[in-house]
Specification:
With 201 residues, the protein is mostly helical. Helices cover 69% and strands 4% of the residues. It contains nine helices and two strands. Strands 1-2 form a two-stranded antiparallel ribbon. The model has no long low-confidence stretch (mean pLDDT 94).
């Protein structure tokens, strides 16, 4: 296998902006003094998730959901192989990682939507409880995701976190993406700021 370009710029920038937004929102969630920052971080997170959903349909090869989302059986087979030290290498996301990504995107939408509704005084304590619960579950999925990245890196002998920075992984030359879409990635921070402004009004 060769060292090939797998992750385009929008996928990478969106990944790290999503992580940063969630981190800021989570650590400011319990402080009334940081309420506006918390709301803005949630708005940025919502905007990036919306972009990722669109990019999962229209994006480059390995960013598209159709290229990596498989049924539960495929995820269990991968995890079984991982436990036995014989995990199948995937150029893009592995089947188990795909389910973690879907869970994170869905939880992010639920968390930001419930947070925005509560921020707008459209619900009572039940909505606040839902917001806190989905954020807590999302944190748990993040922990599982990080553990999966570590185990996958060890199993396949490649740094998966670094690949999400550089865009390069090992794989057949035929599976490399042709374009990195760098110009589109420059628009993402502005889109995140727009979401931060819109949802924190």
């Amino acid at each position: 296998m060769d060292r090939i370009l797998v992750w385009d710029w929008p996928t990478r920038v969106g990944h790290w902006l999503m992580a940063l937004s969630f981190l800021i929102a989570y650590v400011t969630g319990e402080s009334e003094a940081w309420r506006l920052v918390h709301a803005m971080a949630g708005g940025a997170l919502a905007a990036i998730v919306v972009f990722r959903l669109v990019w999962g349909v229209l994006g480059s090869r390995h960013a598209r959901f159709a290229s990596f989302v498989r049924g539960p059986a495929a995820a269990w087979r991968y995890l079984g192989g991982l436990a036995r030290g014989r995990a199948t290498h995937h150029t893009g996301h592995n089947p188990a990682g795909a389910w973690a990504i879907l869970a994170l995107l869905g939880l992010a939408l639920l968390t930001t939507l419930s947070g925005w509704l509560y921020y707008q005084d459209m619900g009572g304590d039940w909505l606040e409880s839902m917001h806190e619960a989905t954020a807590g579950i999302m944190l748990g999925v993040v922990a599982v995701h990080l553990a999966g990245v570590l185990l996958g890196s060890l199993a396949h002998g490649e740094n998966l976190a670094a690949a999400m920075l550089t865009g390069y992984k090992r794989g057949p030359a035929a599976e490399a993406i042709a374009r990195s879409w760098a110009w589109l990635a420059w628009l993402l921070p502005g889109f995140a700021l727009l979401g931060a402004w819109w949802l924190s009004r």
